[in-house]
Specification:
By secondary structure, the protein is mostly helical. It has a domain of 60 residues. The radius of gyration is 24 Å and the shape is elongated.
Length: 97
């Protein structure tokens, strides 16, 4: 909920709205409509979809951060040269002191 108790669709809802909007414009175009107004109707959801794709790709290419369950002691590693999965394996092995 956002602002004075009103519901908002969320990012998946906006994605669905944009795709339905573009489907409606495609149906209108298929019906034989031409002109600038059809292009203008198609422009805004297309731009929004391109920006959403860029944002999702940027999020997908980011590195993982520490989890909420990770304590500061777990973040400091006695083996800083090892990858994180190896550190976890070393920390839980019977050879660790």
């Amino acid at each position: 909920m956002a602002g004075q108790g009103r519901l908002t669709p969320g990012w998946i809802g906006w994605l669905a709205i944009e795709l339905i909007w573009l489907l409606a414009v495609a149906i209108v175009r298929d019906g034989g409509a031409t002109g600038t107004w059809v292009g203008v109707l198609q422009l805004f959801p297309t731009l929004a979809l391109v920006l959403e794709l860029a944002a999702l790709l940027e999020l997908a290419s980011g590195e993982f951060g520490p989890s909420a369950a990770t304590t500061p002691a777990e973040q400091r590693s006695p083996w800083p040269w090892c990858p994180r999965w190896t550190r976890r394996r070393l920390a839980t092995s019977r050879w660790s002191s």
